[in-house]
Amino acid sequence: MFKRTNEQISFFKKISKKSIFELDFDFWYLCLLVGIAAGRKEQLDSSNDMTARFPNDYSSIENLLISMLIHIELVEKGIEPDDKQSVRQVVEQIIDPTNRPFLTTSGFKVFNEYSNGGFEIINEAFRAQPPDDPSSFLIKYGVLVEKIFGQSKMW
Amino acid sequence: MNICLSGWESSGLRCPDMKIELGASNESQIHLIQMPNGTGKTTTLNLIAACLNGCAIEWDQDDVMKYRRLDGTSDAGYFLVRIRTGDEQVSFELNFDFVEQKCSYRTSIAEDGGIRDGWKPPHALKRYFKKEFIEMVVFDGELAARLLDSNYTQAEKAIDALCHLDFFDQMSMAADSIWRNAKLEGALDDGQIQTTRRQINKIKESIDSLSSKINKSKELLEGFYKEKSNLEHDREAELNRHAELKDKYEVAELKVEEANRDRERAMRAMHLTLKNPVSAFPKVQYGLSRFKEGLDRARLPESTSRQFFEEIIKEEACICGAPFNQEMRNHVLSRMSNYLSDETTGVLNLLKEAITKFSDIDIHNNESLEVAIASLKQTNSDYYNADQERAIAKASYDGPGAAEIGKIEQQIGQLMEKIETYERVIENATPQLAIKKNDISKLEDELSEALNSRKIKDQVNIFTSICNEIIEMVRINVKNELLTQCNKDIPEVLLDNPVKIERISGAIYLYNQMAASVGQTLAVGYVFLSRLFSYAAHSFPFIVDSPVGPLDNRVREQVGALIPKLGRQFVAFTISSERVGFVAGLEAASGRSIQFITVHRSFIDSNVANIIDGRDGFFAFHADKEQ
Q1: Residue B295 is nearest to which of A58, A81, A136, comparing CB atoms?
Q2: A101-110, B64-73, B82-91, B306-315: least confidently modelled range
Q3: Distance (Å) of CA A108 to CA A103, B476, B619
Q4: Cβ(A149)–Cβ(B283) under 8 Å?
Q5: B428-447: b (≥16 Cβ within 10 Å) or e
Q6: At residue B357, does pLDDT exceed 90?
Q7: Is the model more confident about B316 or about B296?
Q8: Neighbour-count burial for A57-68, b at 16+ CB within 10 Å, e otherwise
Q9: Among candidates B32, B83, B141, which has minimal Cα distance to B599?
Q10: How many other C-beta atoms are found inside a 10 Å radius of the C-beta of residue B512?
C-alpha cells in the first residue's frame, strides 16, 4: 500500500485538489522524486493509506519507478549491478512477481520511505510554510528537484 | 464393582524383597500380615498407597532416596501392587533409579493390551484413585479414632473425598480464573466503568458541538454563496447598464482568464515532464542504463525469456551459427512462448524493457524541465500582472457605474472573507470530528466489553454460589443418611453396649461421648467408614496398619469381632504383640477363613524376606518372646 504521513497531508492541504493536483498521489510522487534523487529515506511516524496500485496517470512509468527504486537501493547498499547474488536478493525483497504493481510489502515500505524522505527535504526547503498556490509551489519544487539531482552522488 | 488387593512384590528397596499373594475374592477376605518392627511395614504400606494414588509423580529426590536400602547395595528397585477390579487384573509398578534419584510408573491393564508407561488407572475408576480417597483405603488404626476426635475434621473430609466434592471447588476455581483472565485482559471494575461512561458522555458533547459548528457553518456558507451569486448577478447587470465599464472589465477579465489558462497549461506541461523522470533528469537515464547494463553482465534474469529471444533475432546469426533470415526470425518469435520463464524473470524483463523504452530519448537535446520551469515562471508572472492590471483598471475607473460596481465588489470581497473563514472552520472541525468519533467508538467497545466482563463476573458469582450450595447440600444429605444408617449398623456391631451418633460435624460426635470406651469409639469409626464406602459405586478394601494398636486385649477382641461385619476385604498389618485378643475376636466372628502371612527378614540375607504362610507359623513367630 502506498502511504503518506499526517504531516504530508497537512503540508499540501491548501493546494490539494486544486488546479493540476487532482490526486493525492501527485504529491506522493513529487516527494518520491526528491527522495530518490537525494537517496534519503525516512521512516513514517504516522500512516495513511492511499492506494495499492499506481494510479492510471502513472501506470506508464510504474516499471521505470520500480527500476529507479532498485537502482537506488543497490547504490545505497554499495552493490554493483553485476553482483548477481546480491542484486537478486535486493530484487526479491522488493518485487512480488505475482501481482501488479509487482511490489512486496517491503517494496512498498521502501517506496514510502523515500517519498517521506523527499517530503522532509521539501518541508525544509519551504521552511515548513505550507504552499497555498499550486503554480508557485511547482516553480519552487522544480528548482529544488533539479538542484538535488544535479548535486546527487546517488545518480 | 468389587475392588480387591491381590498382592504386591518388592525388590531392591528398603523393605526386604518379597512377593505376597492374597487370596482370591471367593476365598478369605481377611488377611493378616504379620511384620515385626524393622521389616518395612510402614514402607510397604506407603508404597502400596503410592502405587494406588500416583503421588510418586510429585516426589523429589529426597522422597525417592528414602526407599533405598540402608546399606546402599541396590542402584535400582521396584514395588508392584496388583489389584482386581471386577474380573480385571490391574497392576501398578513403581520403578526406582537410585543413581538418577528418580522414579517412574508403569501400569498394566489387561483390557488395554498390556504394560504402559506412566500411572494410568482404569478410566472409570480414576476419580477414586486420588490421594484424598486412598487415604481412607490405606490408613493406620488411628484414623478410625481420629474420626471421633473433635480436634480433627476427618469425618467431614472423608465425606468430601467419597463424594468428590473437590470437583465443585475445582469448577468454581476454573470459573473464577476465567473472570480473572478477563480482568487481566482489561475488564473494568465499577469505578472504571463509571469513568468510561463519563468520558463517553464528554466526547459525545464535543461531537455534538463540532457537528453543530460544522452544520451551522454549512448553513451560513450556503447563504453566503447565494449572496455572492446574487451580487455577481447584480454586478453583471450593472455592467450591462454601462457599456464602457463593461468593456473595460471584460477586457481585464479576459486577460486574467487567458493568463490563467496559459499558466495552467504551463503547469500541466511541467507536471507531465516531471512524470517522465528519464526525460526530466539526464542523470536518471545514465543511472538506469548502467543498472540495466549491470543486469545484462550478470545475466539477470537467468531463465530464457522474451528478452533473450528478441536479442537473439537481432543478431546476424543464430547461436548455433546458422545465418538468420526473416523466416527464421519469425519462426523464433512465434515459438518463443513455449519456453519457460519464471515470474520474477518476467518482471525483471519488464523493468529492462521500460528502461530501454525510456532511454530511446535523445537527452542531449532535452531541456524539458528547465524549459518547463521557465515557461511556468513566465506564465505565472503574466497571470499576476494581468490580475494586477485588472485591479488597477477597476480601481482607476470613475465613470458611470464605477461606484456601484465598486460597492458590489467590496461586498463580494467581504463575503469572500466570510466564506473563507467558514470554509476554514469546516476544514478544521471535520478531522477533529472524525477523531472524536473514532475515540468514542473505541470507548464504547471498551465499555461493552467491560459490561460483558461484568456479566461474566456476575455469572461466575452465581456459579460459585451454586457450587457452594451443592457442596453444603450434599454434605447435609450424606451426613443425615450416614447418621441414620450408622446408628442402625452400630447395634449389629456393638451388641452389648451400642452407642449412638448424635451428629457429624467435622468429626463424629456420640451421645454421651465421654462415657464411650476406646473400643466403642473405634468400632464407630470403622462402622462409619464402612457405611460411607457403601455409598461408593464400587467396593474398596481397607488396608490398615496396626488396626488395634494401643488397645487392651479386651477391646482388641471387640474390634476384631466387628471386622468381618464390615463386609469388605480387610488387610491388616500387625506385629506379634497385637495378635492377642484381636485375632481371637476375628476368628470368632469370621465365618470364613482368615489368611495368615508372616513376613520377616531372612537371617541369611536381611534384604530378602522370609515368608511364612499359615496360622501356625503366624502364631509361632516370636511366641518365645511373648513368654
Answers
A1: A81
A2: B306-315
A3: 6, 72, 95
A4: yes
A5: ebeeebeebeeebeebeebb
A6: no
A7: B316
A8: ebeebbbbbbbb
A9: B32
A10: 9
Instruction: Determine the Cα–Cα distance for residues B165 and B436; give it in Å rounded to an integer.
Output: 53
Confidence of residue B77 (pLDDT cuts 50, 70, 90): very high
Nearest CA in chain A to B371: A142
Task: For residue B33, count CB atoms less than 10 angstroms from its CB and return exposed for 0-12, middle for 13-18, buried for 19 or more.
Answer: buried
* Per-residue pLDDT tens over the stretch B442-485: 888 888 777 777 778 788 888 988 998 998 888 888 888 888 88
| DSSP codes of every residue in B564-582 | GGG-S-EEEEE-GGGHHHH
Q: Is B290 on the interface with A (CB under 8 A)?
A: yes
Q: Are B261 and B268 in contact (CB under 8 A)?
A: no
All three cell numbers of B594, joined, read 482368615
Predicted confidence (pLDDT) at residue B340 exceeds the cutoff of 50: no
pLDDT at B55 over 60: yes
Report the greatest alpha carbon distance in chain A.
Answer: 48
Secondary structure E strands in chain A: 2-4, 48-51
- B243 has a pLDDT exceeding 80: no
User: So what's the pLDDT on residue B145?
Assistant: 73
Cα separation, B180 vs B187, whole angstroms: 9
Element containing residue B32 per DSSP (H, E): strand B30-34
Number of alpha carbons in the 13 Å side-chain half-sphere of residue A27: 30
Indicate if the pLDDT at residue B497 is higher than 80.
no
Please provide residue B503's backbone torsions phi and psi, each rounded to the nearest 5 degrees. Answer: -160, 165
Number of Cβ pairs < 8 A linking chain A and chain B: 129
pTM more than 0.90: no
Position with higher pLDDT, B297 vs B158: B158
**Nearest chain A Cα to B346, which residue?**
A97
Band (B343; pLDDT cuts 50, 70, 90)? low
Question: Comparing B76-90, B92-106, B347-361, which segment has the lowest mean pLDDT?
Answer: B347-361
pLDDT at B289: 86
Q: How far is B255 from chain A (nearest CA, A)?
A: 18
Residue A64 to residue B288, Cβ atoms within 8 A? yes
Q: What number is the ipTM of this complex?
A: 0.93
Answer yes or no: are the C-beta atoms of A113 and A73 closer than 8 Å.
Answer: no
Exposed / middle / buried, residue A17 (Cβ in 10 Å: 0-12, 13-18, 19+): exposed
Please give the backbone phi and psi of residue A42, each rounded to the nearest 5 degrees, phi first: -135, 135
Q: Which residues of B touch A70 (CB under 8 A)?
A: 291, 351
Give the contacts of B479 (CB within 8 A, at least 6 positions apart).
B159, B503, B504
Give the gap in angstroms from C-alpha A43 to the nearest C-alpha of chain B.
Answer: 23
C-alpha cell at B174: 476454573
For residue B95, the surrounding DSSP H or E stretch is strand B88-97
